[in-house]
Amino acid sequence: MANKQPLNIVKMKKMKADGIPLSMVTAYDYPSASLAEEAGVDMILVGDSLGNVVLGYDSTLPVTIDDMVYHTRSVVRGAGHTFIVADMPFMTYHGSIDSTLDNVKRLMQDGHAHAVKMEGGREICTAVETIVKAGVPVLGHIGLTPQSVNQIGGYRIQGKDEADAARLLEDAKALEKAGAFGVVLELVTEEVARFISEQLSIPTIGIGAGRYVDGQVLVFHDLFKYASPYRDKRFVKTYGDIGTIVRDGISQYVHDVKSRSFPDETHVFTADDQVVENLYGKGKEKVGRA
């Protein structure tokens, strides 16, 4: 989409005010980013979910800053006209502020991201404020925060009681005050997500947070069941089954190779008769094709 202009954080805030939902999808490489941009998505998230869906880990915790820089750079090459957010991976923003800024610098200068995303609420607001003052847009992330899954007791729905709802609201407001341009709400009850969205002037982007947030984000591999085995998720709507198509296609390829039906004569290149005669010492017609 050569004529497409990337969104910016000012336009996103206006979209919230105008009631225009934001569309966001994850991408981790050049082809998925290119397809997402061609499809017209507003934003791309290079999520540390790549640990689960690309790198084969059972959580996001092993993902490194090197991983994120590598994949972000690939995504930017594929979607140069789309606003791209890169995740700050586990423990890259909980040390000294100098260390945090060094990691942000890598994602922005080496990865070429437009913004970074950070999990957590009030406890990370000092870092968020410093990063924003340095000129880097920050997208917050509260609710289910996968980097803290061992601390919060697993992949649990957030905002199911009054105390938890109050905590989420306080965290969201704190992130807004610290300068975050938006907040991801993950696996949050619809009622609480709606109330938080109404209380903030910045956009909320939901994943499993119901219908009344300001935008939605889903993982690329969930959209298309691009996994084996694929585990259905209640909050995901799938738009295709790439996993089955890929598996069946490779299975057919294996069959064709074993049965020698691939390649056939439409897939081969032939030499001149003189070349064949020089190679085999006899006419081309007498040379069998293996």
From TrEMBL:
Its cofactor is Mg(2+). GO terms for molecular function: 3-methyl-2-oxobutanoate hydroxymethyltransferase activity; magnesium ion binding; methyltransferase activity. The keyword Ubl conjugation does not apply. Pathway: Cofactor biosynthesis; (R)-pantothenate biosynthesis; (R)-pantoate from 3-methyl-2-oxobutanoate: step 1/2. Its EC number is 2.1.2.11. Keywords: Cytoplasm, Magnesium, Metal-binding, Methyltransferase, Pantothenate biosynthesis, Transferase. The keyword Metal-binding applies. InterPro entries: Pantoate_hydroxy_MeTrfase, Pyrv/PenolPyrv_kinase-like_dom, Pyrv_kinase-like_dom_sf. It is found in: Cytoplasm. Catalyzes the reversible reaction in which hydroxymethyl group from 5,10-methylenetetrahydrofolate is transferred onto alpha-ketoisovalerate to form ketopantoate. Homodecamer; pentamer of dimers. Belongs to the PanB family. This is 3-methyl-2-oxobutanoate hydroxymethyltransferase. It comes from Paenibacillus rhizosphaerae. The lineage of its organism: Bacteria, Bacillati, Bacillota, Bacilli, Bacillales.
